[in-house]
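Journal club prep — side note

Before the paper discussion, L.F. wants everyone to see what a predicted structure for a comparable chain looks like in token form. Sequence:
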Amino acid sequence: MAFGRNMQMNNRSSSSYFLKTTILVFVALCLVGIWMLSSLNIVPVDLSYLVPKSEFKDKVSMPFGDKLGSENDGLASGDAKNTENTVRYKSESESGKTIEKLVEKSKKGSVAKGNDDLNDTFDDTSRSDDGEDAMTEEKLKEKNEIERLESEKKAEQNEKSDGDGSQNEKSEVFPSGDQSELLKETNSQNGAWSTQSVESKNEEEVQASASSKGQKVSYSWKLCNTTARADYIPCLDNVAAIKKLRSTKHYEHRERHCPDQAPTCLVPLPDGYKQPIEWPRSRDKVWYNNVPHTKLVEYKGHQNWVKVSGEHLIFPGGGTQFKHGALHYIDFVQESLPDIAWGKRSRVILDVGCGVASFGGYLFERDVLTMSFAPKDEHEAQVQFALERGIPAILAVMGTKRLPFPSKVFDVVHCARCRVPWHIEGGKLLLELNRLLRPGGYFVWSATPVYQKLPEDVGIWQAMSELTTSICWEMVAKRKDKVNNVGLAIYRKPSDNSCYDKRTEENPPLCQEFDDPDAAWNVPLQACMHRLPVYSSSRRVQWPDEWPLRLEKTPCWFNSSQIGVYGKPAPQDFTADYEHWKHVVSRSYLNGMGINWSAVRNVMDMRSIYGGFAAALRDMKVWVMNIVSIDAPDTLPIIYQRGLFGMYHDWCESFSTYPRTYDLLHADHLFSKLKKRCQLMPVIVEVDRILRPGGNLIVRDNVGTISEIENLAKSLHWEIRLTYSKDNEGLLYAQKSMWRPTDNCHPSLDPSLPLPLPLPSFSCGGRELPVRKVRSISRVSLELGLPQGASKCFDDDGRLKRTGTLWTASAHIITAVIGSGVLSLAWAIGQLGWVAGPAVMLLFSFVTYYTSALLADCYRSGDPVAGKRNYTYMDAVRANLNGFKVELCGYLQYLNIVGVAIGYTIAASISMVAIKRSNCFHKNGDDSPCQVNSNPYMIMFGVAEIFFSQIPDFDQIWWLSIVAAVMSFTYSSIGLALGIVQVIKNGGVRGSLTGISIGTVSQMDKVWRSFQAFGDIAFAYSYSIILIEIQDTIRAPPPSEAKVMKKATLISVAVTTTFYMLCGCMGYAAFGDLAPGNLLTGFGFYNPYWLLDIANVAIVIHLVGAYQVYCQPLFAFVEKWALRTWPESQFISKDIQVPLPASRSYKFNLFRLTWRTAFVVVTTVVSMLLPFFNDVVGFLGAVGFWPLTVYFPVEMYIVQKKVAKWSTRWMCLQLLSLACLIITIASAAGSIAGVVSDLKVYHPFKAR
């Protein structure tokens, strides 16, 4: 309320001019209301959810980014009426924005017409174990394949030349004339389908048999109960096997000892685990809770390995041999031997005993790929630190077995104080490096024997000199770094056998000719050397081309007489594989699946052939671990030849890495092959172990295998982001969640899960945010008979079963809507009169109900019954609208929060002033001036908010919701009761048909006040931003949540409108044109004063909490942004522990104190300068009404229901939005005019 506007008014009738204008406006608004009511009955029915997803019938839930032009109009036209195949797209872009589109494809005949050339050219499914049995039929297709590739190239050139084509066609995932893009990508890897078809058929028969017997596939998960807990690595933490070892002299206890039965338990998360920091910031800092180990800080902190700073572990970039930074050391190595040529000649290196892998991490700046390794627990969690930082590393030890790499593949091997006794036992360990080092490659050794003269060091240096000479390594450099005060020696491996032949003693001896140097899986180490290949056509004799030329060049030992893995001549096989994966990655993985690549750093190709997938990602800021299965053709040397890296592995066993270390796993026809040797379930458990929460899994395989993996992923509460199938081939894209099982259905604290709205919370004028947020994490027992992975304890998204009903949802809405906005309704009706006032209120109730019904349809994306849930208003916006609209919505909400904070400060201070004046009137009489300055009360309110803003999670205290509901109903009911009593006391109803009379106010003021009244009424009704959260409490269908929510909205809007009518109309009836802007503080009522005091105390209590509930999200947003922007600032990141009684403590943060205090001070000062309750309420209602209540729900509904552009429904929705925009502009203008008018008579900081 604005006190300066409580002037005396009379009941003179308005002019005939204004009466005519009012009647015309009223008729127009009524017509809009009638149209809205009638249009509610023409909502289109979507029956797509009746088709079971498990049928895999040409159905895609296909994510893609937010680059789709306007609305993909071109895809919706043409043959839209003759559709047969439905492709459903669902995705999240890199900034977290999502889009829901439905693209109708033409009949199969027309699709096939554009895809006649989609024949397979790759076949790795029917070869024998040695990879040499190629399909004869594939050879016959070579000519067709070449023609197909040429035609595709020409087609791409034509697409580039068609620059004047529609923007929509350029942004399609399935480009024009090639709608079966994903099918081609799948088929092109597998060529002939005989084996895959048989496997899929068998799988389907097994599932059909189980279904016919009434069986349900069920998975019951439990956490692993091991001493390693969150760091459990099955093949390295096999305590029983380690205890049986006869000796640990050669680090046998650090080698792999896999359990007989692969584990099926899930590894728990560390307490307080957070989503990892993104690269490149992760190189320098990680979350401490993600890797909560401090021993390395104690051991190596003085060497700048790692330090603790607040919530982070900081990595200064140092190491034992490079305390002053890795980059200086890297440059020192190249200065010592320029021929190393980082990033050109030397591309792939091996770092032995890597520590926290800072050396490899900084070599990325030199375009060098480093395979770092160290044993588990030699220095606590050093490899885990490296992987958390986004640096390649594996767990391995130089013990009794060969490392899992082929021979002659590393350009450089590096050892910086790696603590490996190279010289003992005939140099067996150094000879393993000799096996791995490329002919002509370099061994960089930086250790104390190189530069110290202690007796032990001198002895080791002498032994190493003898050993390196005997294996024909030439020392080409030896230097000392004066900065780090360390030295290094660089050795070069010979490029041919001439030195071996000239040795006088065969010590160490040459290995037997039948010994395969590439055999590396569980092969014991030998103290012998392998001869180098003699012929230039042999593998890895010639040094590869400089990087990046080597990436695309066919290996020199390939010739046309050799048959490649896929059945074509080897050079063509290699080239076709690379072209295929470039096509797949560029068309689908990067632009078509909605993967947030900014959060992807550590990638693994679980079944790599030539490294084509990794090569296609070369321009991304990722590294790819290429895994070649032990039963697959040995193509790993080819991968290294390209300047990439990888290792051998058997996926029937656990991988040698810590849990939660990879962001993306890619498996191309891996699992169907593994099913022949081992069970699939433990393999998926291993995938769950090594994949980070929020990480991505992409699987390309036959339909039966895809279905099985999807069921397993659902039981693990993963989000299935994409499923696609055709011709028995499928594609699956799933995203791991934070879910971990517990022993029952009770929730455990897990900060990562979506937060449901459990109870109504603070409401003021329809603006409310949830206060108590239940975090659900629990044990799952998946029954496939329930939709989308739901169970008796959990809903389809892994959260505890929702139990909300029609009546609980209605109660939530009512308590959310009824707030302090009710206090200005009497004044609003007073401006419009008995005709327009109630009519406008009814009109706003109709608009609110209608747009709420539209918004309710957007709770689930896609399928209204089984689609992905959107937990908040912003989630729904992200799921349906593009980047700019999402950002606009966010800015509007934050702007609204600032405005609400100002409004709450004004309202609370006015109520405190009213208490003071009420007691003054009671003591001195109603005619006493009782002037009170509101500024001290605003300052008091601000001080209280500064205090409460520093309390962690104050907005989430569970009982705040109850207090808010009780307070709002208390003061609203008191206002209604006093209005009724006043009408009885007056002996009749006051007011006029057209509201406040011209004469009492000017004609222009009458117009502005009427517009402002619209804003006041809109403020009282607005609750759209919490509708989705309320809907998220409703139990799963049937009926659908949308249907229940629409009924709840109808009930609640009807109840609220009735209550508002009573309050507003009774207030106007009691005071007529003199109706105050705030019914309880404008002193239309003087007695009983104690009842007025109770009402105003209730308002103050309500607003103290509501201020925090509204502003805490803004506080958190700014603090997170500041931390991302200035991560190294101690002022922002450092928390100071302040001890409290009862052995408790409080985390004090200087930036939080400064920022939140500044915000409260600014909003308080603005409130002191503009203490006009009615004007502020009207402006807030206007600003929030059109964009948040009308525009975004309308736009989301159009996308969700695929309302065709320029259709009747689309035009009607746009007209509704336009009409409400006009109302919003008028309301805002009226409120601004009110502020201007008040400023003419208001004197800041003076009593009134």
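L.F.'s comment for the group: Residues 1-23, 32-216, 744-791 have pLDDT under 50 and may be disordered. Keep this in mind when we get to the figures.
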